[in-house]
Amino acid sequence: MMGRAHLVIGTGVSLSLLHLQGVPVTVGAAATALVGSLLPDIDEPNSLLMTRTMPNGMLRVLQLAMVILAVWLCVDGAVQSPWNIVLSLAIAAVSFLPFRALRKVLMLIIGVGLAVYGGDYTPWNLVAGCLLVVCTVLPHRGLTHTVYGLAVWTALLYGTTSNSGDSIWLAGGIAYLLHLLADSLTNRGIKPLPPFKWRLRFNLMSTGTRHGAIVENVCILLTLLLTGFVFLPGWGWGN
Question: What stretches pass through the bilayer (predicted)?
Answer without folding.
Answer: 54-75, 82-101, 121-138, 211-232
